[in-house]
Amino acid sequence: MNKWRDNKAWFLVLPVFVIVAFSAIIPLMTVVNYSVQDIFGPGQRYFVGVEWFRDVLLDERLHDALFKQLAFSFMVLLTEIPLGIAIALMMPKKGWTASACLVILALPLLIPWNVIGTIWIIFTRPDIGLFGAIVNNAGIAFDHTASPVDAWITLMLMEIWHWTPLVALLAYAGLRAIPEAYYQAAKIDGASSWAVFRYIQLPKMRGVLTIALLLRFMDSFLIYAEPFVLTGGGPGNTTTFLSIYLVKIAVGQFDLGPAAAFSLIYFLIILLFCWLFYQALQAVGTGDKA
Amino acid sequence: MRLKKRHLGLIAYLIILFLPIYWMLNMSFRTNADIMRSFSLIPTHPTLINYMKIFTDPSWYSGYINSIIYVTINTVISLTTALPAAYAFSRYQFIGDKHIFFWLLTNRMAPPAVFLLPFFQLYSTFNLIDTHIAVALSHCLFNVPLAVWILEGFMSGVPKEIDETAFIDGYSFPRFFIRVFIPLIRAGIGVTAFFCFMFSWVELLLARTLTTTAAKPIAATMTRTVSATGLDWGLLAAAGILTIVPGALVIWFVRNHLAKGFALGRV
C-alpha cells in the first residue's frame, strides 16, 4: 500500500512514544550501567569493561541453556502456529457456538502464570491428577520429576495448552476481517478450499500471523514462571532454560554485573530472531501481492 | 460430511483444552484433605468452603478489586494512545516510521526481571509505589506496543480509498476517525482490548514489586496459599477459577465485535 508522506503523523505517534520511552529507556540505561561494573555494595563499584560479557559468552552452561531454549521455542512455534490456524478455520462464523468457542479458548490465557504451573503439578500427578492418572492407567510410566523426556513433554504440553488459543484468537479475528466479496469472487471462479486458503485467507492473515509468531517467539523464549514452578529446571539441569539460569545467577549468586550482561545478551538474541522473522514475513507478503 | 469431521476436530480440541480447567474446578469444590486423600472425577463431598473464604476475607477479595482497577486503567490508556499511533503507522510515511514501529516491540523482548529494580527506583521518586496507576503505567511497557501492532494489522486491512472518500465528503479527521474508521476495525479493537486486559491481568512480577498492600494484585495474594503445612490446593483452585471470571466476561462482551468483523461499503 503506498502511503501518504507527512511528517505531521508524528503527532499521532507522540503519546505512545512518550509513554513507552518513559518506562523503557531509564531501565535500559541502568542495566547497561551495571553490566560494565563490579558492584560490592553502595559506593563500592569498579569499572570492568567487557569482562562480564566475556565471562557470560564463554560460559558452557549458558550455551547449554541457550540451546535448550531455542529447541523449546522452535518446537513450540512449529506446533502452535499451524494448530492455531487450523482451529481458527474450524470455528463457526457466528451464532452462540462461535461465542462459546471464543470464551472457552480464552480461559487458559486468563490464569496467572504462576498458578498455571501449580495447576499442572497436580494435574500430572499420577495419584491424584487427571492427566497423570489417565496416562499411567494406559500403562505408560510417566513422571516428570524423574525422567527428562517426561519433563520436556509436560512442559511442551503445558505451553501448547496455554498459548495455542492466543494464535487461534488472532487468526480468527484476522479471518473475520476478510470481506465477504473475496469469498464470493472465489466461488464464481470455482476455487478449491485449498486455493481459498492459500490465496485469500493466508495472505489476509499475514498481519495477525506476524504478530502471533513474534509474540509467541519472544514469550516462549522468556518463559520463566511455568517451568520454574513445574520442574524447577530439573530433573538435573535438563529443563534449565535461559531465564531460569539468569535468575539463578542474579538472585542465587547475587552477581548484578554478570546478570546485567546476561540480560543484554539475552535481549539481543531475541531481537536478532524477531528481526529475522519480521523481515522474512514482510518479504513473503510483498511476494504474494506481485 | 466434511463439515461434520471439522466440528469433531474442534470439539475434541475444546474438550482437551477444558480438562485442566475442569480439574481446577473440581478441586475448588473439595477440601485440601479430600484432594490429597483420593482421586475422584467428580467431587464426592462438594463444599463451598474455599469460595466462602475468598469472599469473606478482605485480604483475598481486595486482591481482585485491585487487579480489576489497574487492569482497566491500563487497557484504557493502551487503547487510547495506540489507536491514533496505529493509524499513523498504517497510513503515513514519516521520518523514522519503520524504526519506531519495530523499536516499540523490542520493549517486550527484555527479560522482565531486568525492569524490576529500575522501575522500583523510578516510581519511588514519583511517590507512586503501591498505587494502581503505577502498576497500570508499568504494564503499558508491554501492552502499548502490542496494541499498536495488532491495531496496525487491522487498519492496514481497510482500503485507503475509504479514508479518501470520507475526506472528500467533508469529514474532519476526528469525526472520520470516530464515526467511520473505528466501527470498521471493531474486530481489531475487540481483540486488542482483550489482549491488553489479559497480559496485564496475568502479569505478576512487576505488579508484585510495585505494590505492598493497598494495590496488591490477586496473583500475588494467591502465592499465600503456600504455607508451612504445604499448599492449600482447594483454596488455590477456587482462587484460580475466580481469576478466570473477569476476563471471560470481557471476551463475552467483545465477542460480537470479534465475530462480526468487517463490513465493506459502510461509507
Write down the CATH class of chain A: Mainly Alpha
CATH architecture classification name of chain A:
Orthogonal Bundle
Number of helices of chain A: 13
Beta-strand percentage of chain A? under 5%
Unreliable stretches of chain A (pLDDT < 50, length at least 5) are: none
Strand order of the largest sheet of chain A: 2-3
How many strands, which pairing sense, and closed or not: the largest β-sheet of chain A? 2 strands, antiparallel
Number of domains of chain A: 1
Please describe the biggest sheet of chain B, giving its number of strands, its sense, and whether it closes into a barrel.
2 strands, antiparallel
Secondary-structure element order of chain B, as H and E?
HHHHEHHHHHHHHEEH
What count of helical segments of chain B does DSSP give?
A: 13
Apparent shape of chain A: globular
Helix-and-strand structural type of chain A: mainly alpha
Please state the average pLDDT score of chain B: 83
Average pLDDT confidence of chain A is 82
Fill in the CATH topology of chain A.
MetI-like fold
Describe this structure in words.
The complex is a heterodimer of chains A (290) and B (267). Chain A has 290 residues and is mainly alpha-helical. Chain A has helices at residues 10-35, 51-57, 60-90, 96-106, 113-123, 130-137, 148-176, 180-189, 193-204, 206-221, 225-230, 242-252, 256-289, and strands at residues 4-5, 37-41, 44-47. Chain B is mostly helical.
Question: Which characteristics define this entry?
Answer:
heterodimer; A: 290 residues; MetI-like fold; two-stranded antiparallel ribbon; 3 strands; globular; B: mainly alpha; 2 domains; disordered C terminus
Question: How is this fold's topology laid out?
Answer:
The complex is a heterodimer of chains A (290) and B (267).
Chain A: E1 4-5, H1 10-35, E2 37-41, E3 44-47, H2 51-57, H3 60-90, H4 96-106, H5 113-123, H6 130-137, H7 148-176, H8 180-189, H9 193-204, H10 206-221, H11 225-230, H12 242-252, H13 256-289
Antiparallel strand pairs in A: 2-3
Chain B: H1 2-28, H2 32-37, H3 49-56, H4 58-91, E1 92-93, H5 97-106, H6 116-125, H7 132-156, H8 160-168, H9 173-184, H10 186-202, H11 205-209, H12 218-222, E2 226-227, E3 230-231, H13 233-260
Antiparallel strand pairs in B: 2-3
